[in-house]
Structure formats: structure tokens, C-alpha cells
């Protein structure tokens, strides 16, 4: 199935050049995107280093650093290597060539990885040991432990290992992306000269990477990495040979899909084909344990087609992402965050029909502090309700056992018209989404893949219901994915409404995505790639004009990433006109705040805490008639012009007050999890005046949710 008709390229907004201003000798008014992202990942590492976090949670943050770096190398670094090899590529936003960016990235990534392993070996391992959680390297095993480990190897590991020799009759094998492998150097003890034969042991993904030693034994919990077990016992695979050395390694490959959608007759099959090819993508990084023989190391890099500067020699263990499994392996509540249970929203708590509630009022939820259950219930009730005629749903990422997908299939089986817009190219979820697309089609759901050349990233659910003599639409819009599992970990906004001005435009958006629509008009929603970018620039310009005229002017914007140069230039111009601007940007940011004459009225902070900040909220003072939007879009060129995004207005005074008087001020007050971006690119704790107490926005929101839950319990008794 192909995507719907390609839309004409939108006209980009004119880039506003800020007035000339001193920049303190700065070569560029923009921060480097890759350096900003690496700085974000360093802030994640700081959470692993922080004694304020429970110990197992610190291990979890350390694992997230590895996961983030994997994706960074698979996509961003891979792109730079391609550009350098092709002697092509544009300058970055701050004027760097791909070669210069690659050099900077390697240097910064090396430093980050060194600090990551220092945190593991010097901080976390000793602290875990003090709590009775021990990690053993092979040489540290006691006799009884070694006996158990060798038995485990013989029974659980040896049967699934296949040694692959590297010689004239055995070509170098394909090393799968991010798979664990062990490089073994062998000698025949009967020959006078050392041969240093090379054998690779690929380790199947099915095997657990962290193994608990004698799990039934009393006393401290003891763990060993699978790579240590294999290195210890590798001799059993090579009887008659002497093992010189064994070193674990893994290869990261280019994982960016290239799909020419206009040429692909069947988009689903084309993506499946590309996913199979990804395991053969060009190698972009080698991680190998330190101490490997220089000759073997050079030979391995040569076989992989990697330059030496793309290889990381690590003090082990490889792939710290595997530490994430400790969370379930270690039943120690005292070493984890206290359990948190989202609050049930009072109007929805006892409602027999969610549509009755939405008919009376609009609902705003702040996840994970407010339960995600109403979002699931919205679709499930629609699937069961005999008065519901049609359901339309976008799916970008969802859980493996998604109740929403099951509800859509049930609705179709129940005879309703169901349309699911599945984004097949959601990065790293392509295979999962292909699976759901097929399941939905088998249940009779109309599955479409959106607009050619544009990822569908908006979060929309539309229900058409017969009421009285007519049909009425109900809508859910949000900033996060329809995934109940990540909804417990990500902060997001959900909005329910039956307001006709909104539901009509959501219906128009779906018709554009599933049918043919060249130039749809939206007056209330801001929809990329149609009116979102232009309207945002207009809103910034209004604040600029108000400030220049001496009227109050204010912008507060919360998002994940800020990269678009046009938007940045317009924010600079607004700052110079006197607009007070507060930006809450979790990750990448190319704007430089606090520069005299350029951005001195802009304050920018990032919040990294227990939950992943994912909500997008935008406030414009608008001369006293404030405008507030929430939705799916960051301020990046890709979101404005290469994705389908939707921002929705919050007009209800009570709901707007919750955002403007509570949520945003709390995040701007945060002096624990927040870090403020300095003009030199560093992030620092916000200054705290003497006597001002510590304040965490996330803990405040959890306490507020607990209070709402308690009040709701009293009300319903």
C-alpha cells in the first residue's frame, strides 16, 4: 500500500535576521546541534552520578546513556561519515563542515564514554557491593562460583555458540548491528611459531547478558556478565588449542532507513526489505575491550572497513544498556524510587460513559501524574458503544500488547468503520508497526500510511457517534504516543473535547492524511506542514511588536528540541525588542541564551529527572489575551516541514490556568532537576538565593497528584 498523494512543498517563512549586535567575539549565533545533544546525554550521566538518586535508578540512568549513544552513532555519526566519504554535505547551523563536526563528536563522545565507565567502576560497583550486590569478573570467581559458572556455560551457552574461524577458507562473517561477539586468539601448541589464529564467537541475542550466580544461594547477590563467562570457558570450544586472549566486542552500523516512497509500489514491503538490509549497514563504531592485541585490533578494524578513530577501547563491560535488566533482577525497593500511582481524574473516575463527561466539559490530563487509563478507555468504549459509527486513529509508537490496537480491531469486528494511520517509518519501531499494520488489516481496519515524504507524528483519535438525530464527533489530542507503558515514564499532555471548531478540523486532518488534500485550511489547529511554522513566527512577531510598543510581552515554550534557525532568529529579535522569553528544552538546543545584545532576555533550562520530559506547551501573552497551545511538535525544521504535526489551542480558562499558573511556573521554579544553559554552552544548576528551599517540579506534580487522588477518594465515598 502506498501513502496518500504527495502535497506541494510548503513555502517556508522568511528568515528574520536579528539586528546587528555584539556577540562577544562569537563565531556563530547558534550552538552546534551535535554538541548540544551530547551535552544532553551528559546531563543524563549526571543523574547516574548523583547520590540524590536511589542506587538502582542511578544504574538505570547509566544504561540510558548507552542507549542514547547507540542511536546517536547509528543515525547522526553515520550520516557524517557518509558525507565525509562522499566529499559532500552542507555546513552545520553553526558553520562547521562534516569533517569538523565528526572530529568534535569523536572527541566529546570519547570523553563522555570515559566518564560513563568511570562512574560504573569507581562509583556504582562499590556502592552496589556495599549493598550486597556483587559483580564478579572471571578472575575473581571463587572455586564454588567457578564450578557453577562452568556448569551454566555447558548447559545454557555452549549449545547455541558457533565459532567462526577467520582464514583463507573462512571469509570474515557478517557481524550483526549491536550484537555481542567474542574475538578469540588461538595457537597450536605443537607448532614452534605462534599463529594467532582469529576466531569470532557471535553470541545469540536470546541469551541473557547478565547472569546471577547461584541464584538460590543465601547471602549477597552475585552477578557476572555473559561475556566474562564465555571468555572463561571458551577453551571448551577449541580442544587441542591454546587460547592466547579473548575480548568481547560489538559493532554499531548505519541504521538510517532510506526509502524512496514515490518509487516504492508497496511501502510496507519496501520497509521490510530495508530492515533486513540494516544488519548489513556500514560499520560506524567498534567497541572492544581494552588490552586487545594491536595486530588483532588492526585486523578487525580492516575487516569491518573502520578507521581506527571510530574504535573505542573500553575497560568493560560492553553495552552498559544491559544493566537495565538489573531493575527486575534485584528486588530491593529501598534502592529504587518509591512507587508512584497516577491519579484518576475526578470527572472520569466514576463515569459509565466517557463521552457523557466530554460532552459536559473539556478534559486536560498531565501524564504520568494523571492516569493514562482514560485515553485507553476512550477507544475501548468507542469500540463497544453501539452508537459509535466510526473511529479514526494515528499510531506512531505503541506497546507490544497495545490495548488501543486491540480495541481498534474489536471495533472493526463489531461492524464500525475504523481507520488507522500507522507510521511505518517511526525510527526503530518500523518492524513493530509493520506487525500491527498487518494485524489491523486482517481485522478489517482500513490501514493507511499518510502523506508521501512526511512522517505522521501528530497524536489524534477521532470518534463519530450518533446522538439524537445527528452525528457528533469526539476527539483526543496529545503530545505523546498511544502507549500505556511509556505513558508511565514520559510526561505528556492529553486533551479531550467535543468542541466543533476543533473536531471539524481534526476530521479534515484525517481526510487529508487518508485521501487527497492539497491545501487544507486550519484556523484553530496548527498543523505541519501547512500552517504551523508560519503561525508560530506570527505569534513571536506579535510579542516582538508588543514589546517594542511598550506593552507586556512574554513567551514560555516547553519542548524537546529547538533547532529551526528561522524560529531562533525570530526569538533573538523578540529578545532584543524586550520580550521576556523562558524556554524549557529537554535535549538539543541550537539557541544561545543570555548573550548581551542578542539574547539577554532569553532564559533556557533543561529538566531531567525521574520521568522523561516529553510534553510540548507554548504560551504567548498576546497583549493580555493569552494564547496557549499543546501538541506533538518540537521547533525543528523536520517537524515544521517534513512531518505531519498538530498543535491544539487550550481555550478553556480553567484548563489554561492549570498550565499557565501551575505547570509552567513549577518547571521554571525547579532548582534541583533543572539545569540552565549558559552563554558558553555549559549547563549549570539554577542560582538559589540564600534561604530558598530546594524544589523539584516532578516531585511537586507527584505530590499534587497524590492530593487529587485523596480528594477524589473522599468525594466518591
Structural key phrases:
717 residues, alpha/beta, polyphosphate kinase like, Endonuclease, Chain A, ten-stranded mixed β-sheet, eight-stranded mixed β-sheet, 19 helices, 37% helix, globular
Quick synopsis:
By secondary structure, the protein is of the alpha/beta class. Helix content is 37%, strand content 20%. The protein has 3 domains: 303 residues, Polyphosphate kinase middle domain (polyphosphate kinase like); 169 residues, 2-Layer Sandwich (Endonuclease, Chain A), CATH 3.30.870.10; 191 residues, Endonuclease, Chain A (2-Layer Sandwich), CATH 3.30.870.10.
Description:
The chain is α/β, with parallel strands linked by helices and 717 residues long. It folds into 3 domains: 33-335, Polyphosphate kinase middle domain (polyphosphate kinase like, 2-Layer Sandwich), CATH 3.30.1840.10; 346-514, Endonuclease Chain A (Endonuclease, Chain A), CATH 3.30.870; 526-716, Endonuclease Chain A (Endonuclease, Chain A). Helices cover 37% and strands 20% of the residues. It is built from 19 helices and 27 strands. The strands form 4 sheets. Strands 14, 18, 19, 20, 21, 23, 24, 25, 26 and 27 form a 10-stranded mixed beta sheet that branches. Strands 10, 11, 12, 13, 15, 16, 17 and 22 form an 8-stranded mixed beta sheet that branches. β8 (283-289), α7 (294-304) and β9 form a beta-alpha-beta unit. α1 (33-49) packs parallel to α3 (98-130) and α18 packs antiparallel against α19. It is globular, with a radius of gyration of 27 Å. 44% of the residues are buried. Residues 7-25 and 258-265 have low confidence and may be disordered.
